[in-house]
Structure formats: structure tokens, C-alpha cells
Amino acid sequence: MLSLKNIGKRFGEHQILDGLSVEIPLTGITFIVGASGSGTSGLCRLAVGLLKPDAGEVSLFGERVDLMPERKLIEMRARAPYLVQGPALLDWLTLRENVALADPPSKSDGRADKALERLGLTEFSARKPPEVGPGIRKRAAIARALVLEPEVLLLDEPTTGLDKEAAGQVNDALALVREQGLGVALVSHDYAALRKLADRVVQVKDKKVGFNGSALDFLTAPH
Ligand SMILES: Nc1ncnc2c1ncn2[C@@H]1O[C@H](COP(=O)(O)OP(=O)(O)OP(=O)(O)O)[C@@H](O)[C@H]1O
Ligand SMILES: [Mg+2]
Fold first, then answer.
1. Could you tell me where the beta strands, DSSP code E, fall in the chain?
2. Does residue 125 have its Cβ closer than 6 Å to ligand 1?
3. Using an 8 Å Cβ cutoff, are 32 and 188 in contact?
């Protein structure tokens, strides 16, 4: 469960969130939607303690993120990794080496290979990012997060800027990790994907949460 209570956040003169409260059960796939600049990335960053609220409380897995010391935040982010928008891989390493970056040598026990396999990437593991398409690159970034053995994945616009085929590869990966029991929350503007994949929708609107409920209710709401 991700819980935000009465959140206020401003940058300089610009109040981006004001009195935002929401409880999001992190099972299945949750789409976080909102107009550009509405604060959707901010919500993700608040959830994992990359951003501190000016007011209110943030709890993840029942623990106060906004009060957490950095050492504990690192542990928290292994349970709920946040994949930022844009490129995430090092071009001069193979996909396997990129994924293994998340695997601490002290613990290394083939978790990188397992993560690649979970996402159907074994055949690409010796290739470097420029040698595969953007959909495979994003899948590898997701595989790297899986190495941490998380409970939940947070993704910021994982398909923005991708062509239809690449976006399809990413969306298939999200469906796959849901089947494997992970919760997924993603910021997205892709309504076709929302229709196909979303279990729940959270809409950020007017500095608050405008909607929080099932995807079916969201899609059939009159407005
Ligand atoms: N570090 C910062 N300093 C100043 N302003 C910021 C900062 N981070 C975000 N903002 C502003 O706060 C508002 C909300 O930002 P946020 O990144 O959460 O929006 P978003 O919903 O993710 O939008 P987008 O669709 O563009 O990704 C935007 O107007 C943005 O310009
Ligand atoms: Mg954003």
C-alpha cells in the first residue's frame, strides 16, 4: 500500500500538489494519469523519498517514507524500485552486464540471468543496448530492477517516445511481471495500454487526486 495524506508540495512560487490524499493498494497494475506538469512524476518521487513533501505524510508498506533516513530509503527502494523516464542502460556494457549492475557481488548467485530469463531476454543478453531495439532496452531496465527482488515496480512513462512495436514489448513485460506476482504502478499517457492492462487508475488533477478506483469505473465514468 502506498498512502499519501494531505500532501503539499511547492517549487518556489509554484504549488504543484495541495492537500493530496490517496491510498493505492499496490497489487496488479495501477496507471497514474494526469496532464503534463500535473505532478505525476512528483507523486512517484514522493513515494520513494526522492522528494520530500512540504506538508503531509507519505507511507509505503506501512512505513513513513518522508521521515526515513537515507540508509533505510535505499532498502525501501529495493522493495519498490523507481524507473525514471528515458534511457537507463550503459551503452558500453552488454544487457547482462547492465542487469548485473544491480546484483551486489557479495550476493551474486545468478540473479541477473534469472531476471533476464523472467523477461524473455536470454537470447539478447550478450548484446549491447545500441544493438537492440528500444523495447528490448526498456525490458532490460525492468530486468535490472527485478534483480533487487522487489515487491512493486514504479515506472515513469515507460512507453513514451517508443514506436508501437517497442511499446508493445514493454506492455507485454508489465503483464508478465504482474503474472509473476509483482505490483506495478506506472505513469502513462497511453490510453490504449490503460484499456488493455490497467487494474486501477489514479488521476492527478488540480493538485489533488481526481480519481482513484478500478480501471472499469474510470473508463465508464461519464466525464
Ligand atoms: N526540481 C524542480 N524544480 C522546480 N520545478 C519543478 C521541479 N520538479 C518539477 N517541477 C515542476 O513541477 C510541476 C510538476 O512536475 P512533475 O515532473 O511532477 O510533472 P509531471 O506530471 O510528471 O509532468 P510530465 O508529463 O511533464 O512528466 C511541473 O510544472 C514542473 O515543471
Ligand atoms: Mg513526469
1. 2-11, 14-24, 29-34, 55-60, 63-64, 82-83, 152-156, 183-187, 200-205, 208-214
2. no
3. yes
Percent of the chain clearing pLDDT 70 (strictly above): 98
3-state secondary structure of 175: helix
Q: Say what the pTM is.
A: 0.94
CA of 43 to the centre of ligand 2 (A): 9
Establish whether residue 38 lines the binding site of ligand 1, counting it when its CB lies within 6 angstroms of any ligand atom.
Answer: yes
Nearest atom, ligand 1, residue 43 CA: 18
Mutate to test the pocket of ligand 1, among 13, 32, 38, 204 (most ligand atoms within 8 A of CB): 38
Which ligand gives the minimal distance to the CA of 34? 1
Flag whether pLDDT at 107 surpasses 70. Answer: no
Which residue's CA is the nearest one to ligand 1's atom 24? 36
Closest CA to 94 of 117, 60, 137, 128: 128
1-81+150-157+191-223 maps to which CATH number?
3.40.50.300
* 30-85 per-position pLDDT tens digit: 999 999 999 999 999 999 999 999 999 999 999 999 999 999 999 999 999 999 98
Q: How far is CA 170 from CA 50, 163, 177, 206, in A?
A: 25, 11, 11, 30
Which protein residue has the closest C-alpha to ligand 1 atom 17? 41
What pLDDT does residue 121 have?
96
